[in-house]
Amino acid sequence: MARVLITFLFSLLVFSFPVAGQANVKTADEFEKIRNTIRESYAHSPTEGLNLVNSLLETDDFSLEQRVMITNYKTWFLFENNQFEDAMQSVVEYKSMVSRLSEKSLMYGYYNLSGGIYSRLGLYEEALNYYNDAIPFARQRNQLLVYQVENNIALIYLELERFKEALTTFENYKLYAQTNNQTLNESFASMNIATALVGLKKYDEAMAVLDGLLILQEKHDYITHQSISLVLKGKILRLLGDLEASENVLLNAVDLIKEHDVSSEYMSAILALTATYEAQGKIEHAISLITSIDLDSDKYTHFETQLEVAKFTASLYEKQGNYQNALIAYKQYNDIQTVALKRQASVNLTKALAEADLAAKEVRISELTKTEQIKATKAKAFQDLTIAISMCLFLIIIGSFIAIRSINRQKHKLAATLKRLHDTQSHLIEIEKIASLTSLVSGMAHQLNTPIGTIVTASSLIDKYLTGLSDKFENRNLTSKHFHEFINDTSSAKELVISSVNRLASIVEEFKSLNVSINLDKPMSNIVLLEYMHDRLEPLSIYLEKHIYYEVSGDDVTIMSYPSILGDVLKTLVINSCEHGFIDRDEGKVDIVIKQNAQCVDIIYQDNGVGIEDGILKEIFTPFYTSNMGSQHLGLGLNVVFNAVQYNLKGKICAESSDHGARFIITLPIDVRLVDEE
Predict the structure, then answer these.
(1) What is the distance of C-alpha 363 from the center of its chain?
(2) From CA 606, how far away is CA 660, in angstroms rounded?
(3) Last-in-domain residue among 458, 489, 512
(4) Are residues 589 and 658 in the same domain?
(5) Is residue 298 a contact partner of residue 324, using CB atoms and an 8 Å limit?
(6) Largest Cα–Cα distance in the chain?
(7) Angle at the Cα of 599 (from 594 to 602), degrees rounded to 5?
(8) Transmembrane segments in this chain: where (predicted)?
């Protein structure tokens, strides 16, 4: 016993301290809302999306699996913003986190993200290898991820000018997105379909796709996608020979990009607009526009676009006869290629260094694990010592047990007596339960008898009318007057049946309100009682069609409870005052006083109605008890209030004698969660 006591005290001491690093992680529904916010932010701007995920990762409100998913978004947004080295560092961290999870299908993200980085760097073969490795993991997750990987592979097909294969994949992806109401993915797929159609020289079909797509993108504020679609539309108009329309669309695209700082698409828009000016013969204008781009800046998008700009600039200078500047542009073209190769090497080097750093960290973690094992061994030795001391104490205490042996005998006798008392008490409780159930069943039967009797009587009348009508028909003396009387009589009887059935349904619904669910699905929150009482009581006058004056006073206290349930309790009490206290009046007054105690708060409800007789104060919370039975009242309202306060709000309610109206006192805990834990 001594050992058990020491162990219990030691455990109590240890577990009384908070666990370091433990945080309240997001629920599945909360996290899904955050993911939707991230997607919407990215659709507006990759930079905005990156800022959001960085701020989220700085908090401790996520599980490891949730952090893996947010890191997936972070990596994607990094290389969308041309931060390839940081993206590769992030993807290595992603792989490390997934390795600590039991759900290995999340390794899909590592291969998919790696493929995206290599694709953006122009290393298409490496990208295809990673995407193909991602497919098996995507199948373990869901069909959407499979479509996304296939879509990424099709994007590489576009770069390799395999337009027909790409088009089929994009069309399947769009159909899936539409079926599942995924508008962002539908926007992705539609843009790629239009691009593939341009590659196949099906310009009219591509234009039709873009016209519908721009409406979708504007509706959902997909600014980045909208700017890409406008640039592509301008290119198609140029290819169709409508140069003026092409210029107008591309100027709108440039304005949109500048307004929303979509820097990743600026260079593509300027390049397309320059090509339109060149097609119009505005060589000087085209050169002025394209040379305004600073190709040495890291602000813009893919290096392939930078190469196109440099090459097109050189061709414009050649048309102008300015061969010196053309040579400078070609040199810039070569410089960009050199920088791209260096960037590819830098990203690969970053990956190798990140993986090496990760391996070093794992070695350090292994060393720390060994240290912890040594500490555990020491702790085990200390535990053995504690057990030995406990055994010594036990030997000392056993002598005391012998001395109090006679006391134990008396204790056993008292325990036997107490057991008999408990048995008697349990028997009395069972008797009381049976009596309560009998009262409940009697009340229910009393309520149901009237409508059931009406239904039986009406049914008998209908049967009688049918028999009479049948006799007249068989005797061939049935007239239209007889038939008209039959219709009128049976219609009246039918109305009685319908009215009684509706009354039965109403009674059953009120009876079902006796059931109080302990497992609440209504949210709890902090309630500032004075403010809350004002907000919930004032609208009730309109609802009840009586003018009720409210006065709320007392302590300014905040509790943690269920506001919706407390509001229903107050509403029922006010309805009770109107229907019983103010029954012969068009107005009344309700006073509510709030008093704070140490661990609870008292809400004192007082009206100035006719009041409640002292003799029935103990009966008013009983099911089916009502002083106004003739007015279709079942007597369930205050019983529902009693159940809600006691079982849902973990409090107490009682009715007190009062000289001026009805008086109820509701006692609620300051924090309902503490009552649950106890």
Answers:
(1) 39
(2) 8
(3) 512
(4) yes
(5) no
(6) 121
(7) 20
(8) 385-404
Residue whose tokens read 């030997």: 395
Beta carbons of 145 and 154 less than 8 angstroms apart:
no
Q: For the stretch 458-491, what's the b/e string if a residue is b when 16 or more beta carbons lie within 10 angstroms of its beta carbon?
A: beebbeebeeebeeeeeeeebeeeeeeebeebbe
Q: How confident is the model at residue 202 (pLDDT cuts 50, 70, 90)?
A: very high
CA 656 vs. chain centroid, Å, equals 44
Which uninterrupted H or E stretch holds 595? strand 587-596
Number of domains within the chain: 2
Mean of the pLDDT values across residues 159-168?
A: 89
Q: How confident is the model at residue 651 (pLDDT cuts 50, 70, 90)?
A: very high
174-180 — which CB contacts under 8 Å span 24+ positions? 176/143, 176/144, 176/147, 177/147, 180/144
Backbone φ/ψ region at 321: left (φ over 0), alpha (ψ -120 to 50), beta: left
Cβ–Cβ under 8 Å, residues 455 and 507: no
Rg, the chain, Cα only: 40
Contact 95/110 with Cβ under 8 angstroms? Answer: yes
pLDDT at 443: 57
Residue 105 to residue 50: CA distance in whole angstroms: 24
Segment of 13-27, 52-66, 362-376 carrying the highest mean pLDDT: 52-66
Determine, yes or no, domain membership for 498.
yes
* Region for 626 from its dihedrals, namely left if φ exceeds 0, alpha if ψ lies in -120 to 50, beta otherwise: beta
Query: What is the Cα–Cα distance from 505 to 175, expressed in whole angstroms?
Result: 47
Evaluate whether 104 touches 91 at the Cβ level (below 8 Å): no
* Contacting residues for 541 by C-beta, under 8 A, at least 6 apart: 547, 548
CATH of the domain at 592: 3.30.565.10
197-222: average pLDDT: 92
- Residue 23's alpha-carbon distances to 17, 19, 20, 60, 264, in angstroms, are 15, 9, 9, 6, 37
In the predicted model, what is the mean pLDDT of residues 510-526? 60
Stretch (H or E) spanning 566: helix 563-576
Q: How far apart are CA 665 and CA 595, in angstroms?
A: 11
